[in-house]
Design brief:
Structural class: mainly alpha
Number of domains: 1
Number of helices: 1
Low-confidence stretches: none
Helix content: over 70%
Order of helices and strands: H
Keywords: Membrane, Transmembrane, Transmembrane helix
Mean pLDDT: 91
Radius of gyration: 12 Å
Largest sheet: none
Length: 28
């Protein structure tokens, strides 16, 4: 796996985590 590919996967998972946290804060 190339470093760039690995970085994209990390960024993608981080973005989904941020979205999850955002929605759990917005929707009590």
């Amino acid at each position: 796996m190339t470093p760039l590919k690995s970085w994209c996967v990390t960024l993608s998972s981080f973005q989904s985590l941020v979205l999850f946290i955002h929605f759990s804060l917005v929707l009590p």
